[in-house]
């Protein structure tokens, strides 16, 4: 019979980070960058804007030509026509000349100010009256004033969102180097498990873990290659783990991670791994003690508790640790006050599922209320090992499961 | 020349909700339910668990047979074998009989308690000693104790996450009725716009809006059918809007939403719509005044400001309004304290892009720093119309753009 080799979460994080810290990269185009993680710093190769742009609809002028202009004393300038959007301003603007430029249009080189159309009036076919003195550079955005060649736009480790992809587009960058998507195989084991397309007989239960882990993987940007629901047959589980290791970065096995007769996962990881095999067997957390962290051919193999709520929490915590070496992204958390006291297991970190209503955090409890815990929780809180519990009204931080 | 017909955000929300409130539904299988919104309440059709389950590895007993049992005075029971996981317990357990049941296994009908294996000892091939008195029902989860037939598992309007899909699987439900995905066509207009695969000439800029809006749509679970970058040609824009209306629930047109000569969007919406056409032209917010809300053939057509930051904020706000009628999902927000004073436009609601560092909220400013605003912001804050600004240290709520 195997014995547990229990580690704290802190020790587990250090171990995972030291064993899994090199990630493959690939070049990906803008359209497919959402949620991908940059593998390099990105620098601007153009100036933005690349030409002097007007921020108003109005007339480009030499500011000095407008000195003293007012409603009652307009300065009359020669109308040289207009600039079209998207066109270079090639007109040569001499003294006392002016030119219409729309918002975002190019200001001709010789002009040093824009006058808003509200402060102008057409006096004749060739003459525009300026009714307000212009300050040099007013309403003009200079070349490179938003970004200069060589400026760092985004940093290695950033998880790309819509706004970041917009910034890349603005800089004329249409592909960048990102980390390859992490892939996973999910295996749920147990002689009692059936899939939702099968008929439930007495003694059987529908498998839950392939469903929750698959979709939670999706939330964490992990691509699930395949899911399996397997009976507790040693050879079958071994074969499937081997296939998982070949096709995925992470292989997850829920159930069979304890130390009983039919708990094969730890032995199989030791058999398959040429070097390390099982790194950790047992976590000092509640729920989640029967957890295995293993390494086979440089791939991560996790043995997760069979209980769906425990499996989900342990998966979320360990995968965040695994990914944290790749990206600098901080998962958003929500803070609020507890609506009731929460007890914790002495000497272990305790995780408790909670629901969030406005700023109020309510534990979702129930000895056997697995479905209730799954359907009502928005996330979970973590209580440190040295705390006996938390009091009603205390402020807590929630790890969101969204 | 058109005139603005300005509305507050509150008025806009009421209008959008009154005009767009019927959504199509479809039946979808578990595997494809992530982030879909339930169109019906879901009730359990089985009991969970469907049989009495043991919560420990141990022996099933008649509790009364263990009265007085202790380490020094074990009660000796007849070993009737064991239950396998996934099997019905069909053994007939008479007085003084016992049976091994693993965690999660079925407890035979006649037994009314489980004794943990730690408190038992094998005395002979046929005899198990029980070293601790059992309380009736201990370590047994009753039929339906998690969920009963007819219990409501999930509610109409819920956005389904991994844990909800797990709860459905546990209940043996493999498909549910959800709202069809909302679809969108995104059109970015402007004579100065080019796409990232083109070469930048003087006076031109790379289009940003198709990129940010497409990916932000994805974040809001909207399926983008097609994106277009168009020159300011009335007929071309009209044709493309018509195509958008035919193929999508929402057609977005950025640029051309102001009241100038080349601002065609409002006119085109009025031309295309048989009834309402333009519902709103102008929002009392900053940035975002040049916004159009229109209705053509029961489809939503939005005219968005051309400025990328304004377009992104207005899009996010209006689409949340549109979707809020369909689902009860509350977007998670983050609360923190401002690191500096923020000024606001008097008489209008003001939106300010911000970055989040721990609990500190810092406005991302810069007159022309569009890329900076895009690349550094994590979300935006909203300042009410009657506030002149916010003070350093004040607590604010951030709409996340993730």
In short:
The structure is a homodimer of 402-residue chains. Chain A is of the alpha/beta class and 402 residues long. Chain A has seven helices and 28 strands.
Write up this protein:
2 copies of one chain form a homodimer. The mean pLDDT of chain A is 93. In chain A, the strands form 8 sheets. A 6-stranded mixed beta sheet of chain A has the order 7-4-6-5-9-8, with no helix packed on it. The longest helix of chain A has 17 residues. In chain A, α3 packs parallel to α6. Chain A is of the alpha/beta class and 402 residues long. Chain A folds into 4 domains: 158 residues, Molybdenum Cofactor Biosythetic Enzyme, Chain A, CATH 3.40.980.10; 54 residues, Alpha-Beta Complex (Molybdopterin biosynthesis moea protein, domain 2), CATH 3.90.105; 89 residues, Molybdopterin biosynthesis moeA protein, domain 3 (Beta Complex), CATH 2.170.190.11; 68 residues, MoeA, C-terminal, domain IV (Beta-clip, Beta Barrel), CATH 2.40.340.10. The first copy, chain A, contains 7 helices and 28 strands. Chains A and B meet through α2, β15, α3 and α7 of A and α2, β15, α3 and α7 of B.
């Amino acid at each position: 019979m195997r014995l547990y080799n229990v580690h704290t979460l802190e020790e587990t994080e250090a171990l995972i980070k030291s064993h899994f810290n090199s990630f493959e990269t690939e070049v990906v185009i803008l359209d497919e960058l959402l949620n991908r993680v940059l593998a390099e710093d990105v620098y601007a190769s153009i100036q933005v804007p690349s030409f002097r742009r007007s921020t108003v609809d109005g007339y480009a002028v030499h500011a000095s030509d407008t000195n003293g202009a007012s409603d009652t004393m307009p300065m009359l300038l020669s109308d040289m026509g207009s600039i079209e959007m998207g066109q270079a301003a090639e007109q040569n603007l001499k003294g006392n000349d002016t030119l219409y430029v729309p918002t975002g249009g190019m200001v001709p080189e010789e002009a040093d100010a824009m006058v808003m159309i509200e402060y102008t009036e057409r006096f004749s076919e060739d003459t525009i009256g300026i009714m307000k003195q212009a300050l040099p550079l007013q309403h003009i955005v200079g070349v490179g004033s938003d970004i200069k060649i060589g400026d760092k736009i985004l940093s290695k480790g950033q998880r790309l969102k819509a706004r970041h992809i917009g910034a890349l587009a603005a800089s004329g960058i249409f592909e960048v180097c990102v980390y390859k998507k992490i892939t996973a195989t999910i295996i749920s084991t147990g002689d009692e498990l059936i899939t939702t397309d099968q008929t439930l007989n007495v003694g059987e239960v529908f498998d839950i873990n392939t469903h929750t882990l698959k979709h939670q993987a999706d939330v964490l940007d992990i691509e699930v290659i395949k899911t399996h629901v397997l009976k507790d047959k040693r050879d079958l589980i071994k074969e499937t783990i081997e296939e998982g290791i070949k096709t995925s970065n992470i292989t997850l096995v829920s159930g069979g991670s304890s130390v009983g007769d039919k708990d094969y996962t730890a032995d199989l990881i030791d058999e398959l791994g040429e070097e390390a095999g099982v790194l950790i067997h047992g976590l000092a957390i509640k729920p989640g003690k029967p957890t295995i962290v293993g390494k086979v051919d440089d791939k991560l193999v996790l043995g997760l508790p069979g209980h769906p709520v425990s499996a989900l929490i342990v998966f979320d915590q360990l995968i965040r640790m695994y990914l944290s070496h790749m990206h600098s992204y901080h998962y958003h958390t929500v803070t609020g006050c507890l609506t009731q006291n929460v007890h914790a297991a002495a000497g272990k970190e305790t995780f408790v599922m909670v629901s969030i209503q406005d700023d109020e955090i309510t534990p979702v409890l129930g000895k056997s209320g697995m479905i209730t815990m799954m359907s009502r929780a928005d996330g979970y809180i973590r209580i440190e090992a040295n705390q006996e519990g938390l009091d009603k009204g205390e402020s807590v931080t929630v790890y969101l499961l969204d």
